[in-house]
Every structure is written in C-alpha cells, then in structure tokens.
Amino acid sequence: MGAFYYGLVSLSVEKLGLTPGFAFMLLFGSLIGSGINIPLFTIRASEAGPFPEQRYYGLLRPPRQEFTGQTLIAINLGGAVIPILFSLYLLNISGLSLPEAMIAISLVTVVCYFMSRPIMGLGIGMPILIAPLTAAVVSLIINMEQSPPLAYVSGTLGVLIGADLLRLKDIRKLATPFASIGGAGSFDGIFLTGLIAVLLT
C-alpha cells in the first residue's frame, strides 16, 4: 500500500505539477474529509415515488435512516469542497483554456446526469467508473497534452453538477432524511477520477 501511495504521489508531482507535500495533503485530506458533511439547508419532501428500489452502484452503501418528511442537504468536504478548490487551482496553473474546460465539463455533466439514478431511501447513485472513464476519453480528445488536469477538472465538476446538483429536484421524492453533495457514490467516482487523471499520458 505504501508503494501504491508513493507511486500515486510521484505521478501527481510529474503530471499535475504538485509538490509531494501538496499531493499527500490532497490525497489524505480527501479521504479523511469524506466523512465530514457540512449542512447547507433543509428541504421539505413531497410524496415519494415513482422511483423503485434499485441496486446501489457505489463502493459504500449508506445505512437507511428514519425519514421524517424533511431532507437535510449537505456538502461533503472530501468529495466536493476539496475537489472543487483543487479543480480551480488546476485551472489556474495548468494553462487550460476556459472554452476547453467548459466543453469537457459540459460533456461529462450530460453523461453523469443521464447515467445517474434516484434510489429510494438513499439518494442518487451512479456506476463509479462512468465519470472517470468519460472524463479521460473527453480530455484526450479535446487536449491530449493537458489531459491529466482536464480529466480531473471535468470529471470532478461533471459528477457534482450532473449527478448531484441537477438531481436535487429528485431528492424531494426519495424519502431520504439526508443527501450530501459529493458524498457516497459521488465521492467514489470523484476519487477514481483523480486516480485515472494522474495515469493519463
């Protein structure tokens, strides 16, 4: 495991332009922050349905909680706040043009929206490899030279917009007491996006 982390950091330093300390801080900050949800607001849920029980695609399946008629919307530190800040940092230092970034983010957002599904009692789920693979392909097509940072930015923001923000309207009908932007299955996809991004050549 130590060799894996060392290799990941080495790739990050080389391809994303990070110092070793910054790369380790980002990696472990995201992992530790995945357990921290910052409350934003509460929404009143409407009648449940018409979404059936479905298989959850994430690596972790949150336990069911008692539903009281309201859903607390939060933002996950490791799965949303840190990746958003790092994406803005990459856009600033990588030399990526705004049009390229916007096109890549838009394409990944569309794919994530249509591949994500409301799951009764849980929230929004999506196959965890969809975002990182889509971001990798899109980035290689748009700008092969800058594909690692473009894949991270488009994969991260594409998940958060397509599978979380644009799906907030569905949360009201899921009879779930808690929903986190960047949490659960979204975190899985975002974390894998980072791993795949540093492996691009």
Q: What report would you give on this structure?
A:
With 201 residues, the protein is α+β, with helices and mostly antiparallel strands. The protein has one domain (2-199). 56% of the residues lie in helices and 12% in strands. The chain contains eight helices and five strands; from the N terminus they run ααββααββαααβα. The chain has helices at residues 2-15, 20-33, 77-93, 98-115, 130-142, 147-164, 168-171, 185-199; strands spanning 37-44, 70-76, 117-119, 123-125, 178-181. It has a three-stranded mixed beta sheet. The protein has a two-stranded antiparallel sheet with strand order 3-4. The longest helix has 18 residues, at 98-115. The protein starts with a helix and ends with a helix. The model is unreliable at 1-9 and 49-63 (pLDDT under 50).
